[in-house]
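cron nightly-structures :: item 1 of 1
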Amino acid sequence: MAESNKVALITGGSKGIGYGIAEVLISEGILVAITSRSQESADQAAASLNKIKEGYAIGIESDVRNLQSQEAAVEQVISKWGRLDYFIANAGVGHFAPIQELTAEQWNETIDINLTGVFFSAKASLAALTESKGYFINIASLAGTNFFPNGTAYNASKFGLVGFSQAMMMDVRSAGIKVTTIMPGSVATEFNNHHPSEKDAWKIQPEDIGQIVSDLIKLPARTLPSKIEVRPSIPK
């Protein structure tokens, strides 16, 4: 059993920011379930994470676009470890094209994963988080306040996510649940088919976001940073 007896579920945790968060939490004695649309990817990532602390990670196949799938993921975590303390809604996708070229399929996938998927994550986890007086953390983006060309779908999803998250925070804080929106800028991940290399050393690293999550959950119950913008110190 974990040193803290605390349990986290991270969507999209098989790589990138989600994996970086998992690394930090496990190193601090928190049990972590990571989800992916691929059970193979989830299992491979969990096996790698278990090298940090054996038995502290499990992989779950789940699709945030499906409410029942999210409910099943939460149920699996509770069946395994008996509780859920932290839900990190990290799964995301990006399609970038001028509005003239953006397809309906690309629009729908972006909104379904980046926005509706977080709604489903919240609906699936709120009962467990109410019981544990837990924490719901959304990984949004600076694209939730800064619009740019080719960003109609992505900007819409992240602007919506920031608004959703802040309103959710006000809905659930009376139940003892904290909600924080983390809005990173450039992060060295595989997002949008990028392949991180040493050329990305100037960017925020996934484990840096993990450290922010770790710091948030250590704050006194009376204090809530509801929205955090994160940028590279010296952008390239």
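cron nightly-structures :: done
The longest strand covers residues 178-184.
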